[in-house]
Write a structure and sequence with these properties.
The protein has a single domain, classed as Transcription Regulator spoIIAA. It is about 35% helix and about 35% strand. The chain has a 6-stranded mixed sheet with strand order 1-2-3-4-5-6, covered by helices on one side.
Length: about 130
């Protein structure tokens, strides 16, 4: 299975989805012109990965900011990951947020309340 490796830009996060290790990472800012278009290949990848996932999938979310349309797409991404769990795979979300960034901390807590996946809330100095 092809991995997804994308450089981040001023408007889009860096993406590193590695099927061999089972580690999926989003890092940076997510304010793309068209969030649905940006996230569709990521959701499709997770769907394909779900056919033969690792025993343990780790999702590292290291976003310093995302807009409203990205938040819906990220929720869709989590829902796809949630379906892996129902198939017996272990999925763990590490939600990184910068110290004093209450908005990003709260966003992680909101996802944690909606999605039935284990979340680690991880405060860091800088993303």
């Amino acid at each position: 299975m092809e991995n997804i490796l994308r450089e981040g830009s001023a408007k889009t996060p860096a993406v590193n989805f590695d099927s061999a290790s089972g580690v999926l990472e989003l890092k940076g800012r997510s304010i793309p012109e068209n969030s649905v278009e940006f996230y569709k290949p990521l959701n499709d990848w997770i769907e394909n990965y779900g056919a033969n996932p690792k025993d343990k999938t780790i999702v590292d979310i290291k976003l310093e900011y995302f807009n409203t349309s990205s938040s819906k797409c990220i929720l869709d991404l989590f829902k796809k990951l949630e379906s892996l769990k129902t198939k017996g795979a272990e999925v763990l979300v590490n939600w990184y947020y910068e110290e004093d960034d209450e908005d990003m901390e709260e966003a992680g807590e909101d996802y944690q309340a909606i999605i039935k996946l284990p979340f680690n809330m991880i405060e860091v100095e800088e993303i």
